[in-house]
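Ticket #4471: complex job returned nothing on first submit. Input attached below:
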Amino acid sequence: MLVINNLHVAIGGKIILRGINLEVKPGETHAIMGPNGSGKSTLAAVIAGRDFAQVTEGTVEYFGKNLLEMAPEERSRKGIFLGFQYPIEIPGVSMVNFMKTAVNEHRKYRGLEPLSASDFLKVMREKKEMVDIDSKLANRSVNEGFSGGEKKKNEIFQMAMLEPTLAILDETDSGLDIDALRVVANGVNKLKRPDSSAVVITHYQRLLDYIVPDVVHVLYDGRIVRSAGKELALELEEKGYEWIRNEVNNQTGYGD
Amino acid sequence: MENEHERILNDVTTGEYKYGFYSDIEMEKIPKGLNEDVVRIISKKKNEPEWLLEFRLKSFRHWLTMKMPGWANLRIPDIDYQDIIYYAAPKLNKSPDSPDEIDPELKRTFDRLGIPLEEQKHLSGVAVDAVMDSVSVKTTFRETLAELGIIFCSFSEAVQEYPELVKRYLGRVVPYTDNFFATLNSAVFSDGSFCYIPKGVRCPMELSTYFRINAANTGQFERTLLVADEESYVSYLEGCTAPMRDENQLHAAVVEIIAEKNAEVKYSTVQNWYPGDREGRGGIFNFVTKRGICKGENSRISWTQVETGSAITWKYPACILKGDNSTGEFFSVAVTNNHQQADTGTKMIHIGKNTRSTIVSKGISAGEGQNSYRGLVKVLNNASGARNFSQCDSLLLGDKCGAHTFPYIEIDNPTAIVEHEATTSKIGEDQIFYCNQRGISTEDAIGLIVNGYVREVINKLPMEFAVEAQKLLQISLEGSVG
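Support reply: We reran it on our side without changes. The output follows.
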């Protein structure tokens, strides 16, 4: 589904990613871990099409097509969903209107008629129950005045509405208490289909108690320095990022 | 992606002003320049009574003593008032057999603007007075309205047919000495609409005037007079467009509204004069004086404006709240994109007791546009129990535009309660990307965000026009971000 090959990315002239290789197959859940500043969010931004990140080398293919040539909205319509680390507020735009516009754009892309208002509200109600979200959220403006936890839950709700093929969750767990974390993780698990995949970006291991990954990657200084099964997350939790840092520096001979 | 880019680019560069065409219509024009003779010629062409010529002449003489106001937050290039044609009228070519028939080219022009001049083609019940350059070319539904005693006709016809009414009200709300542009208008105004709603009548349809500038080098100086007698109601809408030209054109209008006891007037404007090109060449200079008086008790005047056009907008629709318990409202959306400048707001003058006013102003600046809100709330010493609420919001798109707020509050009565709230915010790349990431294109995202921001004001427009206004906003802002 997603094949990243030798990806180099710079932001404002500063090199952030230095040759990422990653393949995500249908049905897989990947976790990307790493210390702050290692380039995790940049990787998410490049996949979603944020234009401040310049790709200087390498390729990203999505179902065999060059993802980097697609506009962000096209990527979304093709099934890529980004759960934002910091969801954005849009005052005066109701969640209903926002989601209705988004869902109908997705439907139009697939050659389907727009949903009627009543059908849409019905779908919205179902999804709200599914991801266990306060129904009052839908009547408010997009993320306006939401608490940190509400914003993150709202991301999962939007994910439920858009039913992505590839979900990238960028530190969705940060700033959540344990109950909110459970809601978010349960939502992600419920939304999993046999053909859909998820890339979970996280700083901490605890989210991976709820969302069990097939593969864990460690991103350090713009490279994936280690990939292994879910046990890698536990090892990281135990030994800390210092351990990776030392290992990498010993191997390559460069250090701080 | 290339194609997509090209499409957006194309939409942005060619699609932005739909009404920029010019109609090749035979015109009757007088030579450029302004002097007493020109004032006399205009009056003569309109076959006006002596008192009206006198009104024009004293206005003109007064205007000669005035200077253009410099207090607005606008950069106004020098305007050469001798380089303007003050009267240009399409030749109506009326055949003697059917005097009501309209020149087919004129009809085509208004059809292209979405304003059919044939009554049967109107879907919604809207009566239209269509004004091109200096004259009204057609007023629809006159007869239907006349059955209720409603007078709705061009200003010129009103002068001929209802001279007493015109004489009684003309210049009563905006005196001929009022300000530079209103005084100029009082001297050279050529046409406009006149409307009288008799006592106890609720006008059953929207009344509207559609102003079109067509001729080059011509100024448009129209005058609208709207009188709502006791216990009456009317909702009135005006729209404006002009061809795309590299030269600036002057538009200086005056609107006067009189609301008697228990009368209610809603006056809505969708102003879409040609705004100039992306580099700021051309566009209409729009200097307008609009004022209503709530003369009788419990009367209400409500101004709603959506200002998307014009290179320069200078406009402060005002309410004089003279009658006790009267209400004035002002709801405004003003957009400045590219090099447009707007200095707009309102004046609420509380004279009567327990008078109330509400001001909601939403400015949107994009490109290098400069947008100023200027508003006066004045409570006189007898106006006990006066109440005002003002809210001024500014939205910035991009980092080269500007938003400014100039509130003036003058309170001479200690019982007054006046509230003022103001916010400034910015549409960020972040908001747009967030929408993109959910599958919404950038153009649609801007539309969504802006419409969310202005919803409160748009909801005040008559429903038929609210949708149009939303589209217009979106078009005005195309290509303004990213």
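Residues 32 and 187 of chain B are 15 Å apart (CA to CA). Closing as resolved unless it happens again.
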